[in-house]
Write a structure and sequence with these properties.
By secondary structure, this protein is an alpha+beta fold. Helix content is about 30%, strand content about 30%. The chain has a 4-stranded mixed beta sheet with strand order 3-2-1-4. The chain is globular, with a radius of gyration of 15 Å.
Length: about 80
């Protein structure tokens, strides 16, 4: 008998939702796609999005330090993506 089990991408993403987030460098051009409710931004700005483990955007800043601070304030562990 096979002792392995299947974890769907959806259930895998839910594992760290309340505990893990990542800081994603983005261009302002990408923000509208990720944050449809965001105000219009000038194109070409370098920004940082704090994103939950399931890919849900949490906040955007022009400083990486602000995104990390927001994660810390919300008791989220930031992780690196490679």
């Amino acid at each position: 008998m096979n002792d392995r089990f299947l974890v769907t991408p959806e259930s895998f993403a839910q594992l760290g939702v309340a505990k893990v987030a990542y800081v994603k460098p983005m261009r302002s051009d990408e923000i509208t796609r990720m944050f449809p409710q965001s105000p219009a931004l000038p194109p070409g700005l370098d920004l940082f999005a704090l994103v939950s483990a399931d890919g849900m955007p949490i906040m955007v800043s022009d400083r990486r330090e602000d995104a990390v601070a927001n994660a810390w304030e919300n008791e989220l562990e930031t992780v690196s993506l490679h």
